[in-house]
Amino acid sequence: GAKHAKPRIILYDKVAIVDPVYEPVRSEYRSRPRSITPPDYERPYSYAWSPVPERRRPPPDDRAYGMPPAVPPHHRDFRPPMHEYPMAGPHGPPMHHRPPMHHPPHPHYMPRPYMPRPHHPPFEKMENKKDKFPNYLHHVLPEEDPLATRTLFAGNLEINISDEELRRIFGRYGIVEDIDIKRPPPGTGNAFAFVRYQTLDMAHRAKVELSGQYIGKFQCKIGYGKATPTTRVWVGGLGLWTSVAQLEREFDRFGAIKKIEYAKGEPHAYILYDSIDAAQAAVKEMRGFPLGGPERRLRIDFADVGPGGPFRPKTFAPPV
């Protein structure tokens, strides 16, 4: 056949020998035009390539979703670049990832520093007296409080409250020697009063028990009033370990003492000085003094200067 024939061709008076050469047929070869569509790969959407060759690639922006542009493939492992069209909406999951957060951002687009807003908890109206009068409910022991005195200030009272009613209420905690009610003009505020007890211990007990309590229709404010210096000093925190000689030795360093009124075993005593300056120095310096040891510190305040005669300390029995 033609495959094994030896054709003779004369070229310029010479015989040219021509041998045909055939390529083996490849089984995977298919005679079809080359496709411009990229090979199939998993993607959540489909798209068509635009035939316009002059189309410019849009600049990337900050959006995380979009369709990648169609680019003709150049080899079988081709993958289209992950850019997005400006007007394309989010049609599927993001095709590219933002850089990790620890990478430094572009210097021209530095993010604003996070400035947290100050947290203001919502105001809650509390009816609890501890929230309404916190300062008046913080009680300091009389031996540690330099402002402690036997006179109490009672504020936020009804304008028409009577002396008898206050004496009945405050008389539950000690012997009340005097009550002075102050009533402002109508419409200018509530009434207030000064209640003077016989001793500092009685006043402190009333302050602890009545602070923030209702007297009438208002919650009462209780605090210490202003001390009135006298030449007579009340000394509390005493006991069986105390003697008159011990009191005289500790208190005569502030000035001349006229009289010491003390009965053995009583919890308090009265010391009468010759001058107010000496009494004031004793009250200032001896408050909290550990006369009977670290756990037995003195409580001290001024007292009324009573008439002469033998000392008879008053006793108080709270009403049942």
The profile of the biggest β sheet is: 4 strands, antiparallel
Per CATH, which architecture of the domain at 129-224? Answer: 2-Layer Sandwich
Coarse morphology? elongated
Cα separation of the termini: 143 Å
In DSSP terms (H or I, runs of 4 or more residues), the helix count works out at 5
Q: How large is the share of residues in beta strands?
A: 15-25%
Structural class, by secondary structure, is alpha+beta
Task: Give the mean pLDDT.
Answer: 74
CATH top level label of the domain at 129-224: Alpha Beta
- CA-atom Rg in angstroms: 52 Å
- Catalogue the unreliable spans: 45-50, 120-134, 308-313, 315-320
Can you give the helix content as a percent range? 10-25%
For CATH, the homologous superfamily of the domain at 129-224 is named as RRM (RNA recognition motif) domain
